[in-house]
Amino acid sequence: MTDITALSINTIRTLAADVVRKANSGHPGAPMGCAPMAQVLFSKFITGNPSNPYWINRDRFILSNGHACVLQYIMLHLAGYDVTMDDLKQTPGHPEAHLTPGIEVTTGPLGQGFANSVGSAISGEHLAALFNKPGFDLFNNHTYVITGDGCLQEGVASEAASLAGHLQLGNLIVLYDDNHISIDGDTELSFTEDVLKRFEAYGWHTQEITDGDHDLNGITAAVENAKKVTDKPSIIKIRTTIGIGSKNQGTEKVHGSPLSAEDIANIKTKFGFDSDKHFYIPDEVREYWRSFGERGQKAENDWNNLLNSYKDKYPEEAADLIRRLSNKLPNNWAAALPRYTPSDPAVATRKLSETVLNKIADIVPELIGGSADLTGSNLTRWKTAVDFQHPSTNIGNYKGKYIRYGVREHAMAAVMNGIAAYGGLIPFGGTFLNFITYAWGAVRLSALTGFRVLYIMTHDSIGLGEDGPTHQPIETLAALRALPNILVLRPADGNETSGAYLAALNNHHRPSVLALTRQNLPQLHNSSVEKTLQGGYVLEEVDNADITLVGTGSEVSIAVDAAKLLKSEGIKPRVVSMPSFELFGEQSVEYRSSVFPDGIPVVSVEAMSTYGWDTYSHAHVGMRTFGTSGPYKEVYKKYGFTPENVAAKARETIAFYKGKSVPSVIFRP
Amino acid sequence: MTDITALSINTIRTLAADVVRKANSGHPGAPMGCAPMAQVLFSKFITGNPSNPYWINRDRFILSNGHACVLQYIMLHLAGYDVTMDDLKQTPGHPEAHLTPGIEVTTGPLGQGFANSVGSAISGEHLAALFNKPGFDLFNNHTYVITGDGCLQEGVASEAASLAGHLQLGNLIVLYDDNHISIDGDTELSFTEDVLKRFEAYGWHTQEITDGDHDLNGITAAVENAKKVTDKPSIIKIRTTIGIGSKNQGTEKVHGSPLSAEDIANIKTKFGFDSDKHFYIPDEVREYWRSFGERGQKAENDWNNLLNSYKDKYPEEAADLIRRLSNKLPNNWAAALPRYTPSDPAVATRKLSETVLNKIADIVPELIGGSADLTGSNLTRWKTAVDFQHPSTNIGNYKGKYIRYGVREHAMAAVMNGIAAYGGLIPFGGTFLNFITYAWGAVRLSALTGFRVLYIMTHDSIGLGEDGPTHQPIETLAALRALPNILVLRPADGNETSGAYLAALNNHHRPSVLALTRQNLPQLHNSSVEKTLQGGYVLEEVDNADITLVGTGSEVSIAVDAAKLLKSEGIKPRVVSMPSFELFGEQSVEYRSSVFPDGIPVVSVEAMSTYGWDTYSHAHVGMRTFGTSGPYKEVYKKYGFTPENVAAKARETIAFYKGKSVPSVIFRP
Ligand SMILES: [Ca+2]
Ligand SMILES: [Ca+2]
After folding, report:
1. Does residue A96 belong to any structural domain of this protein?
2. What is the crossing angle of helices A29-40 and A216-228, to 10°?
């Protein structure tokens, strides 16, 4: 270790102790223990441009053990990113991609960053396969990860690691901070597996550094070796001392709360620093890190020159790439969305979704996705699709865009977040709607970070029938609607399915969930691609209405049939289709009150928990229990999803409000 | 293979094909491929009593690949359980524990059964350590599992496998149906890891059978070997042919839909059966399986005799065991629940929960649980706790009841389901409330199956402060409230925390979630252990009230303070505490309308998504976005959780309804 390297590492360590103490909250131990590996990565391997943190061919750095975020903030500060010393003193408790420049993905919930990195590596390999040409290595970056024991215990990381090994992602390099400590204490309490052997089993290249506190040459050589292995992801297990320098080093005591002032003073003395100086960065360390920015700026300049020559030689590819990087969809892509009339046959919305994918997959080439081993059920594979697979397998190649996620819903969602974070691609993934909750940890981060990720969720209710209650979502839409910044779209027919894709692709800064049926649905009168974007709209209007029936997805046509029954009795029903609570809630109050006019009671019908429906309706036909196994029509009948029962509920509701004032569902305090 | 064995196996196979075809839905392939291993397990290893399926020392059999349930139904039918041939023809689409006798746990969502089996094995080891005495092997059963590729790809199974290896659960034996097929096709598409090497890395004993279609002696010997290894769980990889006999055998085509009539006829001919006979069980096969019930009945008789002698020699232990098996809590256990008065100090409900655990852990000895590596945060460890660890580790033993789950939330929940299914124990587990969604796949099955499982979820809102939005639940309570058959309890102080435990333990047939604060809360006037059981109750009443303020958990005291402010202005507020929507919803309409009297507008205050609160209130102070990092008081202020803002919302609401009729929140159509 050279003097300046040692000085830099100890600067990181003392700074970490100071920052956590100042915030009076946080995790000093891991940043101190990981300082050497971060030093190696940022000084010798990571290329990035602090002046343009989102330059597309940067190396990605992901701190999967997000609670160690002080380390990342410090490295960004030293490297010259727009993270000031004042920022350092009041940073978010976990790294948030949308808040801090240089943070690629939001981490903290354990295992997510690790799984995101697999998406990042997939993107790198795919874009390289697509755009690189002889002499034009436009994409040759690596994804570097630091991870702790916690992440490696999480199922989402296991799933992602197995997938990464299968896909042979040679551009992925993980440094595992093996400090033998988790929050409860020594890892011997609960985590005694042979981690490297497990990763070997996944098909990873593995290495070990026994003294990660001091052996910088060893770490450097290991990362160099890892880069040379281009057909396997790499993991390097690095034994470190958590909270090194503290009197409690190597124990869980230094993990999750600030060190004492006295302890910090002693640490500084031990590392040759002035114990009275706080937030101290020696000038020579500042100077030393200046080269990071210079190196990064030069790399981007060279890359821009390369791109300019590329434009001349490959104008079409260049135009496509530049369009993608500007985050613009192809002109007129939406014209490809199919439209339907009521005379078109009844079709399941999952099948209508497949039709949309077939129409747009080649027009919107940045779409990349697949299914968690339910391709034939989710209907997520378009006709011209090629598998994203390592070319040596002969079952696909890295230009392919159909990802075989395997039975790994949680990793699928986290990988999609990693793909969205990378740029230039729009990820989608499919499973049954009920199993989006298997992936919730990552779905939540799609929403929090504002990534355009498409969740294509089929078999969206008890209407899936025979598979029974283990597969029938009940609480799922309530959970999604309660989650901020995510669009939930449950289309009722072909036009609304096209509208759902239009909304999902046009919403650049939030994820979308498409809830799609297994069963066939008729094409509705007055349904509309464009009106879908308003979230809710009138399908059938009538003067002096007695009742409004509102439905979503597969229940809209039941509401339409219930309206027919009511009309035959002289009752005047209106019908509203409401594919998206979120989009509807964003409309003007004038619009919303035209959809739900005051004075007319509302009955909702949705084959899902009624929880939350009191917002837009006075009475509900919905689920209050789990479902059951059986043919879908029988199951629907059992739980009252029939025109007859909806009509009965409508009559009951009209009678209830006879002579009473009907509460407004729009005008509330 | 003897003639009768071959005949039995082919009976299972042809019956599986017939049953799936009759149901016109289901999965014939795996049952046909797994018939030999099921034959071996049920004829040679599994001891169970069809006349008393819940005899406590039975061997447990768990079909983790639940879609192959026809296999399980057929084995139960053959073995003499109360599953008739008519039942067989109309069984649920996945095995449901509460519906079919002999089904231990509800499976289908992949990976769950595997993880449940770890809970089952923990229970077996713990109860053996606790109750077995020299000469009295009351607990010596095994947990046998059949699992497919799908389950082994799921994160929940990986987490559970790592935990099982760590805990050295020698009573757990897993048969892995390695058929190289998943729904999308050959496993080479997405699942190419070395499974046995991975399990070795976890510390498992591994074996391999290369011809699982025919090598019954090999399977038998492998299970015998597995039983001999008592300090490691065992997995046996068994290569099989999915849908063996079908013209499409060995492909995904036989996985998820019925075989054609012609194909089935040919299969029958191939296996020497009459192709015109359906649902055919040869007499000699029926006769052969009779011994299963005889063997099981004898085993239970012997066990009952053993228990009788045990009663004489160990009356105290016997009484405890018999009480547990009768599913009765100890007399007067609830008297130990602490009670508080307003003069008691402010304490966080997570800390109050710790106090409850300290009071009851030794009185209710069937409580067994821990935390997903957040012990010091969740405060789930009571003073006299001993770790559940393999005795060789010297950090605990199998009598210990504190489970170090590691950072494995999903496995924790699934393991708890396995413990609850086993009997004689009440499992609990802790993590941050936000991370209950990491475990949702298993939480949902706790609810669907009706297991008494306690989720002790701390840091229950943005009130956790500095960790920021990645850790702050927003949608979580809405999701839980929308999930059927689960109690959600968010206590406001010490009395309500005791009340929450009272509700959770007394509700034998549903799980409970306790949402607990990180921050301190004052002890409230008029709070009550017993009233907590009503879900919502009046904390402050007033004649001719202008407004009702309703809160949950940490926001109740804010509502109380807001009421003070309003009173000082001459406004008359009522205050309601509502620890549980579910319990409140189960009260009489008279009671509910006394809590929310007509004509008085209601303002809710809960630091959580407002989604769903329109049911019980007209206006809300709640969350509509994600939270932020910061000290909790600042964060609370930022989002309006202050007495001042609640009072302002109350004034606004009163003004809004001036001269208008106030909608009833109780009387609805
Ligand atoms: Ca660690
Ligand atoms: Ca399989």
Report:
1. yes
2. 60
Task: Tell me: do A80 and A213 sit in the same domain.
Answer: yes
Subunit contact B626:A485, Cβ cutoff 8 A: yes
- Residue at B196: amino acid letter: L
3-state secondary structure (DSSP) of residue B192: coil
The ligand minimizing its distance to the Cα of B189 is 2
Euclidean distance between CA atoms A288 and A3, whole angstroms: 11
Q: Mention every residue, 6+ apart, whose C-beta is less than 8 A from residue B475.
A: A444, A479, A480, A482, A483, A484, B609, B611
Structure tokens given for B457:
């979820």
Is B184 within 8 Å of A110 when comparing Cβ atoms? no
Helix (H, G, I), strand (E, B) or coil at B121: helix
Last residue of a domain, one of A521, A556, A577: A521
Containing structural domain, residue A131: 3-297
Q: Across chain A, which distance is largest between two alpha carbons, in Å?
A: 91
Contact check, Cβ <8 Å, A471/B109: yes
Do A507 and A366 fall within a single domain? yes
Looking at A492, A521, A550, which one is the last position of a domain? A521
What pLDDT score was predicted for residue B212?
98
Which residue, among B451, B470, B605, would best test binding to A if mutated, counting the most A CBs under 10 Å from its CB? Answer: B470
Helices (H) then strands (E): counts for chain A? 24, 20
Rg (CA), chain A: 28
Kindly state whether residues B372 and B485 are assigned to the same domain.
yes
Q: Does A666 fall in a domain?
A: no
- The pLDDT tens digits of the residues spanning B545-555 come to 999 999 999 99
Please name which of A475, A436, A458, A438 lies closest in space to residue A626, comparing C-alpha atoms: A475
Say if B316 falls within a structural domain.
no
Number of domains in chain B: 3
Specify whether the CB–CB gap between A440 and A448 falls below 8 A.
Answer: no
ipTM confidence score? 0.98
Percent with pLDDT over 90 in chain B? 96
Residues in chain A within 8 Å Cβ distance of B192: 165-166, 203
Predicted pLDDT of residue A95: 87
Give domain status of residue B321, yes or no: no
Question: Which phi and psi angles does B29 have, rounded to 5°?
Answer: -60, -50
Q: What is the CATH classification number for the domain harbouring B504?
A: 3.40.50.970
Note the helical H segments in A41-111: 69-79, 85-88
- A611 and A513 share one domain: no
Q: Which of A121, A109, A113 is nearest to A166 (CA)?
A: A121
Do B500 and B567 have their domain in common?
no
Is A159 in contact with B158 (Cβ distance < 8 A)?
yes
Look at the alpha carbons of B70, B75, B77, B81 in this order and tell me if their dihedral is positive or negative.
Answer: negative
Q: pLDDT below 70 — which residues of chain A?
A: none
Residue A247 shares a structural domain with residue A347? no
B633 plus B505 within the same structural domain: no
Q: Distance, CA B252 to ligand 2 centroid (Å)?
A: 9
CA angle, A237 then A239 then A242, to 5° = 125
Which tens digits make up the pLDDT trace of A631-659? 999 999 999 999 999 999 999 999 999 99
- The first and second tokens of residue B474, run together, are 């927003």
pLDDT at A23: 87
- State the DSSP string of A489-518: E---SHHHHHHHHHHHHH-TTS-EEEE--S
What distance lies between CA B531 and its chain's CA centroid?
27
Active site residue A262: no
Enumerate the known binding-site residues of A for thiamine diphosphate.
Answer: 67, 108-110, 150, 179, 255, 435
What residue ranges of chain B have pLDDT lower than 70?
none
- Cα three-residue angle A460-A463-A464, rounded to 5 degrees: 75
* Ligand number, closest to the Cα atom of A250: 1
For residue B296, what are its two tokens? 């099981």
**Cβ pairs bridging A and B (under 8 Å):** 354
